[in-house]
Specification:
The protein is α/β, with parallel strands linked by helices. It has a single domain, classed as Flavin prenyltransferase-like (Rossmann fold, 3-Layer(aba) Sandwich). It contains seven helices and eight strands, in the order βαβααββααβββαβα. It has helices at residues 20-28, 39-47, 51-56, 90-97, 104-114, 151-161, 172-191; strands spanning 8-13, 33-37, 60-63, 80-88, 119-123, 135-138, 144-147, 166-169. Strands 3-2-1-4-5-8 form a six-stranded parallel β-sheet, with helices on both faces. A two-stranded antiparallel sheet has the order 6-7. Strand 1, helix 1 (20-28) and strand 2 (33-37) form a beta-alpha-beta unit. Helix 4 (90-97) crosses helix 6. It starts with 7 loop residues before the first strand and ends with a helix.
Length: 192
């Protein structure tokens, strides 16, 4: 795939607080990004008190407000070199794993795949540490809660990991590394 100087990163956020703060902090350090919010993400960003932080980034923000997810057409115009979905809820993971594209974020993933644009996905429900059966997650008002991923959620993440042009980040540090590596690839392609 040829990378042009005009191509951008598409970053989708779903309605989870799990690593939302960290995802927004990473997003704030990036340039040439368009941000896509699911309906639930738009709600949860306000609920967690992150709206001003998102607005201050200066990224173009698209919200899930059209039945046909009109902005996904930008993939067919070659606007994006990569799609990142972080955080991705178990609902979004399940839909993507079974080929549903009935929302803005699931449609973004489907169109990225159809145009062979690589996707990097940080799933909220990933396998916890072997000796700890839960994941700690931030709830509204900075409360920390224990989340026990269900077997079906873990199976859906595994299924999605087998899809073409898809990288599953099993931890936030792996997400950061995957995004950095992809941006380095893109930059090297522009200099070639």
């Amino acid at each position: 795939m040829s990378i042009s100087n005009q191509q951008r990163l598409a970053w989708a956020i779903t309605g989870s607080g799990h690593y939302l703060r960290e995802s927004l902090a990473l997003l704030a350090r990036l340039q040439n990004v368009d941000v896509y919010l699911s309906k639930a993400a738009a709600e949860i960003i306000k609920q967690y008190g992150f709206q001003m932080q998102l607005d201050a980034m200066g990224h173009k923000v698209y919200q899930d407000k059209t039945a046909s997810s009109v902005p996904v057409g930008l993939f067919y115009e070659g606007v994006y070199h990569t799609l990142v979905i972080s955080p991705a809820t178990s609902n979004t993971i399940a839909k993507m794993a079974y080929g549903f594209s009935d929302s803005l974020v699931t449609n973004l993933y489907a169109q990225a795949g159809k145009t062979r644009v690589p996707s990097i996905i940080f799933a909220c429900d990933t396998a916890p540490e072997p000796d700890i059966p839960f994941i700690e997650s931030e709830a509204p008002r900075e409360n920390i809660v224990q989340v026990y991923p269900r077997k079906i959620d873990l199976e859906n993440v595994e299924k999605l990991a087998t899809f073409e042009h898809t990288k599953i980040a099993e931890s936030f540090s792996i997400l950061c590394e995957a995004v950095s590596m992809r941006l380095a690839e893109v930059h090297a392609g522009r200099c070639a």
